[in-house]
Amino acid sequence: FRLFHLRGAQGVKTDFHYHEFCKLLFLISGSGGYWAEGKHYDLEPGDVVLLGSRCVHKPEFAADAPYERVIVYISPEFLQRSSTADCDLLEAFSGAFGHVYRPQSSADQKLRALVNALERELSGQEYGRIVLSSGLLLRILVGIGRDLRQGSGIPAEPSRPSDPRIAGLQAYIDGHIEE
Q1: N or C: which end of the chain has fewer CB within 10 A?
Q2: What is the pLDDT of residues 85-107, one digit of tens each?
């Protein structure tokens, strides 16, 4: 896995794309939107975006609006190796709970502390930093998975298009996707 902490007012102008790895995005500040598998989500600070391998997605942030986020790219092999019979770490990235998780305030504080600790470990050179950073990432993923399964975190609902013609087109496409 790799971690990137990005800040600034460099709006994202990106086409739809996908990765061979899973993507975990923590929005620290700012606002914008995210497309994932044909659904649009309005993001708020504290939101967590969960994108599985090959999930078609596109971020949307205004070019002049400052925002800050931490992105972690995770190989599916790492998630498979770290999973157990009672804990499938790929589940949170499957889209079964949606693609945006909005933690409650107490979980948000714990999550931010773990993300900060993960970032510190990865940027340092201390003995055992790789082992400890793997453990921190696993704590983050298990915490998110528990919240999603227990319903204590709120899966963000996709935003609805305001034009009923667009909603009708989306419903038609979803109903005839095989064609």
Answers
A1: C
A2: 999 999 999 998 889 999 987 78
